[in-house]
What we know:
A hairpin with a 2-residue loop joins strand 14 and strand 15. Helix content is 32%, strand content 25%. With 411 residues, the protein is of the alpha/beta class. Helix 1 (17-25) runs parallel beside helix 9. It binds flavin-adenine dinucleotide (FAD).
Amino acid sequence: MQKTPQKPRVVILGAGFGGLTAARALVNDAHVTLVDRHNFQTFLPLLYQVSTAGLAADHVAHPIRGALRKTGIQFRMGSPISVDHKNNTIKLDSSEVLEFDYLIVALGSATADFGVPGVTEHALGMKSVNEALTIRAEVLRRFEDLCRFEDDTIFSISVVGGGPTGVEMAGAFAELVRGPLKHDQAHAAAHIKINLIEAGPRILPMFSEKLSAHGQKDLEKLGVTVHVNTAVQAIKPRKIEMKDGSSLPSEVTIWAAGVQGEPAGALLNLPLVNTRIDVDQTLQVKHYPHIFAIGDIAGLVGENGRMMPMVAPVAMQQARHVAKQIKRLAAGQELKPFKYIDKGSMATIGRHKAIVEVKKLRLVGIPAWYAWLWLHLFYLLGGRNKIGTMADWTWNYLTFDRGNRHIMDSL
Length: 411
Ligand SMILES: Cc1cc2nc3c(=O)[nH]c(=O)nc-3n(C[C@H](O)[C@H](O)[C@H](O)COP(=O)(O)OP(=O)(O)OC[C@H]3O[C@@H](n4cnc5c(N)ncnc54)[C@H](O)[C@@H]3O)c2cc1C
């Protein structure tokens, strides 16, 4: 009698965009165990709306067990602490040891301070729901302080980093100040200043020059002061010092200047390029053919000679590719190199203000804004989150208010 081949055991570290997509793509072909330190997946592209009071925090978090229901995929909440490469096992911080035939590392990224002193101590990061709630609380607490003053005390919020996250955040703060906070206390709102600081010559450098200029104009219309060619030297309490010797008062500084491979990746004793795991074009880790790395943590060099951008479509496409690679390996077939299909970029600046660039197609204003809304709603996980997000957005749109202006980080 012919023996049915055993399904391979696959352990996936990280249940974000890459890890969860890989798990689902392998559901029929492997015994999958997914590991994450949280029991929910964070929809990072909408995190800035949590910090600017546009969305409730639980609308951007989706329970992993809910996403895996009826799939047979195992979930473990925990973090890897070591790998035994001889026996193909991985130890978690719960002391559990998981055996694997294939390992997929999808641990994502962490805030990179690029060696700028004071980032950890005096700036707020933007990588988790917790950090987003801290930003919201810090800004609204300063606003409450400002409401006590009748003088010309200025409260400055600075966002460092002119990529999509920084731009979206600065625009959303400007709208929070111009709408809800102005209605709460006009004098205080008039004394809030928002800065966006970018080291390069223009914001949104992944877009064409025309769209990037459009984005800057939209931000300025909302009242944001955009500082380009302005490299940060150090973050100090209530102040940012620049490399050109100037400085800017800043009561709340948000660091959206960049990310690096998640440091936990280094515990796995795998080769690194800078902070990302060194992989071949097949996404196999160099010298470890049964281990793959995907998403932000994978240091894959693209056709342009540069590392793949740290964006969700890269992580999801790599996840599907690796699932196919594992099926090919199990069937004794040759592996294929990963090819990224870049479907374009988009960023929203505020109500009816967005930019979209898909190859030669460029959209601005209302059509771009609707395209942005629709796409984010489409990719958001979970029916409850979609309905909650639509409810928050509709409320914000119709009332010009933001219902999530709570300071919830203290008793
Ligand atoms: C604020 C923000 C906004 C963004 N906006 C966009 C956008 O608009 N469009 C876009 O395409 N991309 C955007 N990105 C980038 C995008 O979110 C990432 O490229 C994408 O999430 C990468 O997927 P990933 O699977 O590699 O990592 P993630 O989705 O980050 O998943 C990593 C997972 O690993 C888990 N993990 C990490 N360390 C450990 C550990 N030690 N132990 C256990 N689990 C661990 C995390 O909890 C997480 O669930 C944004 C990123 C940020 C931070």
